[in-house]
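task queued by scheduler; priority normal; single chain, no ligands, no partner chains; default sampling; output format set to structure tokens
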Amino acid sequence: MKTLLQLAGLAHFSILIASALTPGALDWKRQLAALPPFLRVLFWVYGAFIVLTVAGLGTLTLVNAEAMAAGEPVARSLCAFIAIFWLARLGVQLFVFDARPFLTNWFYKIGYHALTVAFTAFVAIYGWAAIFPGKSFLP
């Protein structure tokens, strides 16, 4: 379980690659130009907070993977929070966002589906660590 958590922690930083590509892929500079300046800045600030959150979740996991795997109470709470965070993000991915107009090439399509797999894996790994502390995820 510790190894899976460490891999999940590292994977958070891979998610940030997609975050870095998003403004260019979605042409934010042109698309957001029509918004009032406050809303443009607000959009970027929200994006920055999301990046900081994802980086924080990855860092917390890497620093605390052993405690999370062992099921220490605060670590279980952290696992539960991270699982819920990614479950909510997975729900948005599946039921709110319609990314089809933006999946214009194979790279974007693979990236989008890879994100879906990553979000699902995060829910499974962190959820398992929260619900079944100290038990192996894989046989």
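post-processing summary
- The mean pLDDT is 93.
- The chain has one domain: 2-131.
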